[in-house]
Amino acid sequence: MTALTALVLTAVAVLGVAVVLARDPLRQVMLNGLFGLSQVLLFTVLQAPDVAISMAVVSTVAYPAVLLMTIHRVGPQDRG
Amino acid sequence: MNTRTRALLFLPLGAALAAFLLWGLAGLPDFGSTQGPYARYLARHATAQRHVTNVPTSIVFDYRALDTLGEELILFTCVMGTALLLRSSREAEEQRPSDRPTSAAQRHLVSLLIPVTVLLGLWTISYGYLTPGGGFQGGVVCGAAALMLWAAGGYRDHRALTPTGLVDAAEGLGAAAYIGLGLAVLAAGHAFLANVLPLGSTGTLASGGTIAVLNWATGLEVSAATVLVFHEFLKEYVQTLPGAAED
């Protein structure tokens, strides 16, 4: 395992925990995007570009868009 | 149950689970040391057997094409479920709420980026079996272009430029083409989804046989499915705008 792999793996672990610990849904969506980006880097470093592209399009386009719209729709009633 | 009892229950059980997981982790092969026989075989022979230079795509659309059919149907079912839950009575076009962005910079910049995004998506799909990419990845990029229509021109433009009837048909056509090709190959006396088309010359767009066809079928299905999901969720979003009709 190279230093680069170790660095990216650490970023994945830290950001993954950060997503779970975030309490505000909006902040959680943003952190989840960064978590996805760290996985894109991980798959790139591990030489799996196909998976990296899949992860990039899902974690930075489709998933956050749907989450943000949902939070906006249900947000005002549920947030204390 | 108070916090103390909960902690007393959690600590021994958590410790046992952690020990079990660590035991399993300790028994794993070293990082990056093992390559399965299947991976070794494909890395060596896939290009010669299927005339494609991107081996993962040959696995997705040929060696494991049946798995991909399952995944495609999962997406198809998800979109159907979303539509069943969220697609209410037909909304009249002129009753759609308008949320045209007020920032000229946003309108112009995003408008400029839409054709670039569509081109990137089509490129990712069409070169999917030569370089990294493929129908799924490129399909989501094309779907993102529909979302950018909303960012550039608002909800009305987004819906007007991606007519639901057309997108519905495209999604069905993509899924049907995948299954139809499999059945056609079956009817011709081969295994379901076997690669029987001419393989073409390696490294060109005219290569891969059925891989190219299934790649495009998946690209169409995923693009349309992504757009349909955005339709339903955006419709929910615009109902929160001032002046939107309640239903």
Q: What distinguishing features does this structure have?
A:
heterodimer, A: 80 residues, mainly alpha, flat, B: 247 residues, 0% strand
Structural domain tally of chain A: 1
Largest sheet of chain A: none
Termini gap of chain A: 46 Å
The proportion of residues in beta strands of chain A is: under 5%
Nearest-integer average pLDDT of chain B: 90
Question: Could you give the count of β-strands of chain B?
Answer: 0
Provide the β-strand percentage band of chain B: under 5%
Helix content of chain A: over 70%
> What portion of residues of chain B is helical?
55-70%
Distance between the termini of chain B: 43 Å
| Number of E-type strands of chain A | 0
Order of helices and strands of chain B: HHHHHHHHH
Number of helices of chain B: 9
Give me the number of helical elements of chain A. 3
Give the overall pLDDT of chain A as a whole number. Answer: 89
Low-confidence stretches of chain A: none
Shape of chain A: flat
Our count of domains of chain B comes out at: 1
Instruction: Write down the oligomeric state.
Output: heterodimer
What class do helices, strands and sheet pairing of chain A give? mainly alpha
Q: Can you summarize this structure?
A:
The complex is a heterodimer of chains A (80) and B (247). Chain A is an all-alpha fold.
List the helices and strands and how they pair.
The complex is a heterodimer of chains A (80) and B (247).
Chain A: H1 3-21, H2 25-45, H3 49-78
Chain B: H1 3-26, H2 37-50, H3 55-63, H4 65-86, H5 104-126, H6 135-153, H7 155-161, H8 164-187, H9 210-238
Helix pairs in contact in B: 3-4, 3-9, 4-8, 4-9, 5-6, 6-7, 6-9, 8-9
Report on the architecture of this protein.
Chain A is flat. Chain A is 88% helix and 0% strand. In chain A, helix 1 packs antiparallel against helix 2 (25-45). The termini of chain A are far apart. By secondary structure, chain A is mostly helical. Chain B has 247 residues and is mostly helical. Chain B has one domain. Chain B has 9 helices and no strands. Chain B has helices at residues 3-26, 37-50, 55-63, 65-86, 104-126, 135-153, 155-161, 164-187, 210-238. Chain B starts with a helix and ends in a 9-residue tail after the last helix. Chain A binds chain B through residues 1, 5, 46, 48-54, 57-58, 61-62, 65-66, 69-70, 72-73, 76, and chain B through 31-32, 54, 56-57, 124, 132-134, 136-137, 140-141, 143-144, 147, 226, 229-230, 233-234, 236-237, 239-240.
